[in-house]
C-alpha cells in the first residue's frame, strides 16, 4: 500500500506541504470537510474470438478530484492534470460552490493512517504479466471449449487486468493510500443445434494475482460450465409465468439481496427518505433466521477494499439480523447528516466521480436446512441457479433479476430446463417470504459490477440455497 | 477545435509510422463539463471538470493479416504520449494477425455538414442559470399536487467537447459538439407508499431544451399517476409502449442488426436480411446527419461520412449497421456506424435511430384497446439477442374498456422480439426525441403479462 503513496508523490511531484495548502485553500470559506482524491489506474485486456487473440488494449487514467462539503452541499472539481496549479484552481472551484458555516482551521495531515492490513497483496501486478502469457491462456481456453462438445460454434474469451492506485487526503487529517489489483476472466460460448443457438457465459475474478486464473484447475471448470449452460439451454423449454415458489441456488443468485435490500439500505436514500426502507430500523423486514451482511474486509474478493474511496477502513456491517433491520450503509456525508458513524462504504468509480454509499460484498449467512431437502419441499415451482443481472426501483421497492439457468420443480424434483426469465418482487417483503435457508453459503465467482447514478464499481454477492414462497416469474407459459 | 489537437493527433500518427506500424489512427477528445443537482430549493452538488483523453490504435503487418492494439491515456505530456505510441505498437505485435483487421479502404468524409451540434452562445452560460433551471423544475414538480412530497432531485448538466480524429489513411478531421440536459425525479406519497418517476430533456443547444416548468410538471404528473399501483393477474393482452419505453425495443433491434452480432452468429435475425421480420407499420431509420440529432456527427469513429440507412422498410430487414471491420467480415460496405471513445476500440452503434411515426395519438391508441397494459417503465436486462427471447420488469397503466383503469406495478412482460415486431398492429404519430433512439407509441398485439 505504501507503493501507492510513493508512486503518487513521485508521479505527481506533490509533497505534503502542497497537499495541505490545497486543502487549506478549499477550506478558506469555512466548509465542513475538504478532500483530495488522487488516482492512477492502468487497465489492460486481451480478447479472443474465432480462435485468435485479435486485439489487445491498455488504458491509463490519472487525475485528481477535489471535494468540499458544507451542510448538505458538495462542490466537486476534477482534472486529469495533476499539479499544484490545477489543485489550486480545482479547490477554488469546489469551495466557491459550497459556502457554508463549518469550522475552519489549518489542516494537519495525520500521516499514513492506513489500516494495518492488506486484503489483496500481490507479488506481480496483473498489469505487469506478459501479454504472451495471457494469449496462451486464451488459446488454451478456445481449444478446450471446442474439444468439450461438437455443438460449440463460437468461443469468446477475455482476460482483464487492472491496477488502481489511490490516495485520499482530507481536512480531518486523513491520509490513506491503497493499491488495488483486480483481475477477471470471461468465457462466452455459442452452441448450435440445427437452427437453434444459445449462449453460455461464465466469469471469475478478484483482487489477486493473475497466476490464479492462469492455472488450468481454475479455468477448465469455468469453461466446462460455460459450455454446459449453452448446451443445456439448447434444450430449454418456455418458462412458466405467474406467481410460484422459487428456490434460488447458492452463490451468484445473491444478486437478489443486492437488488431487493442492498440498494434500499444505502444511506443517501435513507437520509433523504426516498427508500422503501426509510425509517424502518428495528423493524422486521425478513423472516426469522435471515441475516444479511455487507463485508468489505474479505481477503482477495472483488468487492473488498482496504479503505473506501474516502480513506475510511472498510468493515463488516450487519444490515439485517435474524430478520430485523439493523443498519444502513454510509459514506461520510450521509453519516454526518444522519448523526451516525460512516461504515466505510463511500465509493466512487474514479477521480471523476463523487463518492456515494455503495455495497462491497453483500451476502446472507448460512442457515440449517439441507439444500436437497429444500428442493424436495416444493411441489411445483422454479429452481433458479444462475442470474444475468438485476435492477431496483429504490422508492417503490420493486426489483427484478434475470435467470439464465433455471429449471421447473415438479413434485420436489428438478425438471426441464427453462428459458431465461425475469423474476420480479418487492424488496421490503420478499425476505419475509423466505421459508428455508440452506447450510451451503457460497460467494459468487467475482464478476459483479454495480451501477448507480451512472457510476460502476466492482462488488460481490453471496447466498445459501434459499426457498422464497410466492415470487412472480416472468415467463410466457400459463 | 484547437490547432493543438490536430497537431497532437498528427504527431501520434507520425510516431506510429516511426515505430514500425503498418497503419494506425488516433482520437483526441477534450471536454469541459458542468453538472448540478438540486433537491427542493437546496443545492445537492455542483461538479465541474476539464478532461482530455487520447486513444491510439496501431496495426502491424503479420502473416495473413494485421494484428492490432488499442490504448488510451489521459496523461498527454509529450513523454507519456511517446511512451504510449511505443506501447501500442509493441502490444499489436503480440496479438494474432487477423485477415479482416485494418482501416477503411477509402471513402472518407470530405464535407463538413452543418448539423447544429453546438451553439457558441451557450459557452458563457453561468452555472447560476443552470441551478435556477433545476430549481424551477423542482418547484414545478412539487406544485403539481400536495402528494408530491420529496424527490431524488433535479439535475442540470452541460458538456462541451472537441473531437479530433486522424488516421494513416490520410484522414484528419474534427468537430465540436455540446450536450445539455435537464431532468427531474419527484416522489409522490399516499397511504404510506412511495412512487417515483421522472422526465428529462436533452439537446445540443440550451435553447432547444424543454422548459424547466414543463419538465417538472410532466415528472410530477407521472409520479402522481403511479400512486395506488397494484399487480394484475397473469394473462395475455395487447401491450402499448409509450415514447419513453418504445425506444428500448429499437435498442434491442439495434443489438440484433449490429454487424458484430451478425458475423458472430449471435443475433436471432442473422439469417434474415431481405426478409420481412416486422409488421408493415414498422420502418426504422438510422441517420447520423439528422440536424440537431443527439447522435449526429459529420463522420464516424473511423473517419467515414455518417449517412442515412434504412434498417427496416415496411417490416423488411434491409441493412445491418456496420463499421469497417464487421463490414469486411461480412463482405459488405461500412454504413458509417463506427462508434469510438478514446478508451475503446471501434465498435458498431446506432447514430440517431428511430421508428417512423404513424397516425393518431397515444390516447386514441388506448381508446382502441379493450383491455391491455400501457407500459410506462421497463427495468432489468431480460433480452437475449441470440434467441430474441424477451422478459422484463414493467410498470404502467391498466386499460379496461378503452380507458385507463388503474396503475400497475410488479409485473413482467414477456415474449419474443421477433414475434413482437411482427405483431405490432398500431403506431402513433407522437415521435419524441428523449435520446439518440426514439419511437412513437406503438402496440404489440399480444404479450404475456405475469403478475398474481
Computed Rg of chain A: 24 Å
* Structural class computed from helices and strand pairing of chain B: alpha+beta
Share in β-strands of chain A:
35-45%
Relative helix content of chain A: 10-25%
The separation of the N and C termini of chain A measures 57 Å
Our count of domains of chain A comes out at 2
Largest interface, chains and sizes: A-B, 77 and 77 residues
Number of helices of chain A: 11
Structural class of chain A: alpha+beta
- Determine the N-to-C terminus distance of chain B: 58 Å
Overall average residue pLDDT of chain A? 91
Short description:
Chain A is an alpha+beta fold and 478 residues long. Chain A contains 11 helices and 22 strands.
Please render the helix and strand layout as text.
The complex is a heterodimer of chains A (478) and B (452).
Chain A: H1 2-12, H2 16-27, E1 33-49, E2 52-70, E3 73-79, H3 84-96, H4 131-148, E4 152-170, E5 175-193, E6 196-206, H5 211-214, H6 216-234, E7 241-248, H7 255-262, H8 267-272, E8 292-295, E9 316-321, E10 324-325, H9 332-338, E11 346-347, E12 356-357, E13 361-364, H10 371-376, E14 380-392, E15 398-410, E16 413-418, E17 421-426, H11 427-430, E18 434-437, E19 442-443, E20 448-452, E21 455-463, E22 466-474
Parallel strand pairs in A: 7-14, 13-21
Antiparallel strand pairs in A: 1-2, 1-4, 2-3, 4-5, 5-6, 7-22, 8-9, 8-13, 9-10, 11-12, 14-15, 15-16, 15-17, 17-22, 18-22, 19-21, 20-21
Chain B: H1 3-18, E1 23-39, E2 42-62, E3 65-73, H2 78-94, H3 127-143, E4 148-167, E5 172-190, E6 193-196, E7 199-203, H4 212-224, E8 235-241, H5 246-256, H6 259-263, E9 284-287, E10 308-313, E11 316-317, H7 324-330, E12 338-339, E13 347-348, E14 353-355, H8 362-367, E15 371-379, E16 389-400, E17 403-416, H9 417-422, E18 424-427, E19 437-438, E20 442-450
Parallel strand pairs in B: 8-15, 14-19
Antiparallel strand pairs in B: 1-2, 1-4, 2-3, 4-5, 5-6, 5-7, 8-20, 9-10, 9-14, 10-11, 12-13, 15-16, 16-17, 17-20, 18-20
Helix pairs in contact in B: 3-4
